Amino acid sequence: MASPSATPARFFNLDERDYAAAEQRCRALLARMTLAEKVGQMSQFTSDRDTTGPSIREGYQDDIREGRVGSIFNAFDADFTRQLQTLAVNESRLGVPLLFGYDVVHGFRTIFPIPLAMASSWHSEGVEAAARVAATEAAAAGIHWAFAPMVDVSRDARWGRVMEGAGEDPLLSSRMASAQVRGYQGHDPRALDSVAACVKHYAGYGAAEAGRDYNSVDLSERVMRSVHLPPHQAAVNAGVASVMTSFNTVDGVPASCNALLLRQILRDEWQFRGLVVTDYTAIMELLEHGVAADPRDAARLAVNAGVDMDMQDGYFLDHLAELVEADDVSAARIDEATLRVLILKDVLGLFEDPYRYCDEAREAAALLAPEHRRKAREMAQQSMVLLENNDLLPLSPAPQRLAVIGELADSRADLLGPWHGDGQAQDARTLLAALKDRLSGAEVCYHAGVPIDIDDTASRQREIAEAITIAQQAEVAVVVVGEKEPMSGEAASRTDLGLPGQQLALALAVIASGTPTVVVTLSGRPLVLSELTAALTGQSAALLHGWWPGSEGAEALVDLLLGDVSPCARLPMSFPRNVGQLPLYYGQLPTGRPVFRENPDPRYSSKYIDSPNTPLYPFGYGLSYTHVDYATPQLDKPTLTGPNDQLTLSIELTNTGERDGVEVVQLYLRDPVASISRPIRELIDFQRIEIAAGARERISFVIRAEQLGFIGSDLRWRCEAGRFELHIGAHVEDTQMLTFDYQP
Ligand code: BGC
Fold first, then answer.
1. CATH level 2 (architecture), domain 11-363
2. CATH of the domain spanning 381-581, picked from 3.30.70.120, 3.40.50.150, 3.40.50.300, 3.40.50.1700
3. How is domain 626-743 classified at the architecture level of CATH?
4. Is the shortest distance between the CB of 161 and ligand 1 below 6 Å?
5. pLDDT tens digits for 202-241?
6. CB–CB of 176/516 below 8 Å?
7. Model pTM?
8. 205 CB under 6 A from ligand 1?
9. What separation in Å is there between the alpha carbon of 279 and the centre of ligand 1?
10. Is 152 in the pocket of ligand 1 (CB under 6 A)?
11. Which of 44, 36, 95, 103 is nearest to 71 (CA)?
């Protein structure tokens, strides 16, 4: 867990001299600006590039000409961004270039698996490489600024936006956050393939009550700091250029006017120097939250709390000047915010060449480049989680008669998932097409099964009967079930996490047909798969969770099914047995009446009377086509003697299977006695190891005192003496324990 920092955060990876030089240049420009022009820089609007309707600001192009806009989002492609940039540069009084932002969340044109899937790879370098590809393509299409990474920790699969983050764990989310910032921003902000990153949503958005999107959040400041803020801080430490505020309230105060978050923590404690932008119309929503009386009041609250740029509602544009004149907002605050916008433009090189990102030739070469597709395929292979395998996968030798069943098996659009940038369904293949291609010579029969959107029990009988018939004529059936793209993502919370429509009945019928069955589930969130899993027991069957795997997802799925590659992903979020367990996460506190494993049925313990407490599939879980044995772990000494001391834990792993594999070795901590109750497990480190068939590898983890620390009830970070447990293993419920003492 990160501890408070006292040194100024990096801005990209600029050194102090370069930052100071940019600031000096921008101060000179600031001195020439009118108040209205400054407020213009603090305002952002969507373009009409891919949106139509009432959300467009009428006459936004005139706003650009008149210097009333600092940034445009949803404008992309080299040609269109040049047209808009020309308005700003040639027609506005000072010619300050626009900053073009866009939601480049898991790829721009080459679409990678959704972020929750990428987090399942536990592969920071791979995730960094994915963000690099996304940045390269986006930058070639005129974009300067990616609204990513989304780092909201979430422990409630009802919330549709879990698909955008890295799941339930602060450490894994932090590693994914910094990997993405490095990937988007690259080594040098002036490189033509670097874009500014924007960590979002700050903060606590993933803790929406009841998993309902945009709902209130009520967290103690301690939990906020311990669980939800670390990935944001990791992004700040990695040099992220900007932060986006979240829609929700935190302890009654909306995040978009929350001085604790925006001033005390972000600026004073973390020393963040970049830009703070709101989420879409979040200042306007201060009215609905009931903390602002009118638009002017909302603008005042947001700017005084520390917001630098207003996304879309135009409240800054309409009210900041009069607020300054009335002394309700200081001129210094406006200068501070404007300067941050200008510095970002400066370090991206836009003052030198406002059109440097608008280059059609570069755009044509970058989009869907073969190397980008290759990386997307690799990442998709590494992010699908094998949940069950009763001696069925891989399908080797390849079957000669295959039944492929399910609407999703023949869908391209649903493979991309929400927030797919400029990704296009036509760039992806369906699983059906990929299987037919790779199994040339084999007979591949397809049935669409039951419609996903329509829960029609009447017609399902006929469709299921037909599907069973084709399954029975095949050697193997592949049933693809799950969510369609609009079923997860923003504003897509659900209360039922089972397979939508009649898909469960379809899958159960195919499994019961007696034909060996691979069930592939696709979704943007953990699903409730209890009945499905139970039906697999004793059958020749397998369950592979493919998430939404992106443009190359179908190819990657076939790679795994046929055994060209072994699955290696591990769940970044617990899969519940039923919705009633939510929120569900491994890092819970112990409770005064725990359910002990050795005594599973005491009446008055913290449990349900109709369900186990445990998830169906735990955090960190995932199978592969090989088996890795863990020997007894060892510690080099029994005691850690001070803040600078360290322990080394080592363990030998043996790949006892016949295939090369990747093992994600997970290290958890428990602090059984402390000044506050501590989680029963806390991930403190992990390593992703490639291990050849038959090979034996010794790996080690270094444990330092800072990894034992936590935020106490006084909100101060502390590290307390005592005995600690380390739990090392293949997932959170499959570990070996060691103990050591911390005696500073
Ligand atoms: C989302 C943000 C996104 C913004 C701009 C909002 O609705 O919450 O994540 O960056 O729209 O598209």
1. Alpha-Beta Barrel (3.20)
2. 3.40.50.1700
3. Sandwich (2.60)
4. no
5. 999 999 999 999 999 999 999 999 999 999 999 999 999 9
6. no
7. 0.97
8. no
9. 6
10. no
11. 44
